[in-house]
Amino acid sequence: MSNPVFSNSPVFGDPNDRRNRARAQAGAGNGAMATQTIDAVTLDKMYEAPSATARDTGRLTYDDVIIKTAGLFALLVVSAAVTWTLVPGLWVVGAVVGLVLGLVNAFKREPSPVLISLYAVAQGVFLGGISLYFEQRSPGLVVQAVLATFAVFAASLFLFRSGRVRVTPKFTRWLIVALVGYLVFSLVNVVLMIFNVGGGEFGPLRSGPLGIVVGLVAVGLAAASLIVDFDSIKRGVEMGAPRKLAWSAAFGLVVTLVWLYLELLRLLAILRGD
Q1: For 110, what's the count of Cα atoms within 13 Å in the CB-facing half-sphere?
Q2: pLDDT tops 70 at residue 59
Q3: Per residue in 64-80, pLDDT tens?
Q4: Which parts of the sequence are annotated with region: Disordered (predicted)?
Q5: Which residue has the higher pLDDT, 45 or 13?
Q6: What does the alpha-carbon distance between residue 113 and residue 75 come to, in Å, rounded to a whole number?
Q7: Taking a C-beta distance cutoff of 8 angstroms, is the pair 124, 75 a contact?
Q8: Closest CA relative to residue 106, chosen from 221, 215, 264, 259
Q9: φ and ψ of 139, to 5 deg
């Protein structure tokens, strides 16, 4: 059986087919020259028409990811500015709501633009309050942390785009093991803080020289996570993933960058002796 696209076409179809003969005869009343002219115009339009892009076919593009990520960051920055200025005490609420929404969005099969946007707002509330706390203790610290976050982001993107760091199965396994180890380490530190063991504002395992070492490791893990995020987005675009997954990609980038900013904020505070 021939391709139905061609077999059903009055231009490419088999002239011996009854349906095609009927179509051709329907236009015969206007004369043979008119029929040839119509066919020629149709063919010209077909050849001159631009090729369908990924956006036309509903597939994921880098522009989609960039636009969604920029939108989420705009929500985050605005909510952070409002919290910083008016209600810094709401940072605890933002932290709890952001944690819950982060888990919900991470395990949802289909991305929810509303829930992801609410997550960005909640994280903005959290970051606005906590950033003001650090800024009041050490003026200029927040600006340094923001600049350092962008610097690490740019360096990670450069290393990925240049091919100097490749996301291989071995690299991914190493990162997963390291992240699990860091999570366990952080939980132990939190437990020690709750029971007031060892002292230290950030916990006994996140203060002093040890805190600096752990902070540097955490920043390295966050940078490696960004590289994995870039690779995932690249594979999604190349595989023609649905455009709606741009929300998932943007959500993942925001999660990693928020974590990176917090680690840099804490690390800089320790380095300043605050």
Answers
A1: 3
A2: yes
A3: 999 999 999 999 999 99
A4: 1-31
A5: 45
A6: 13
A7: yes
A8: 259
A9: -55, 135
By CB atoms closer than 10 A (0-12, 13-18, 19+), residue 237 is buried
Q: What does the pLDDT average to over 215-233?
A: 96
What is d(CA 125, CA 88) in angstroms, rounded to the nearest whole number? 8
| Residue found under tokens 């959290």 | 126
| 242 φ, ψ (degrees, to nearest 5) | -60, 145
DSSP the chain: ---HHHHT-TTTS-TTSHHHHHHHHHTGGG-HHHHHHHHHHHHHHHHHSPPPPTTTTTB--HHHHHHHHHHHHHHHHHHHHHHHHT-GGGHHHHHHHHHHHHHHHHH-SS--HHHHHHHHHHHHHHHHHHHHHHHHHSTTHHHHHHHHHHHHHHHHHHHHHHTSS---HHHHHHHHHHHHHHHHHHHHHHHHHHTT-S--TT-TTSSHHHHHHHHHHHHHHHHHHHHHHHHHHHHHHHTT-BGGGHHHHHHHHHHHHHHHHHHHHHHHHHHTT-
256/218 Cα distance (integer angstroms)? 11
* Cβ neighbours, 10 Å, residue 27: 14
Its pTM stands at 0.79
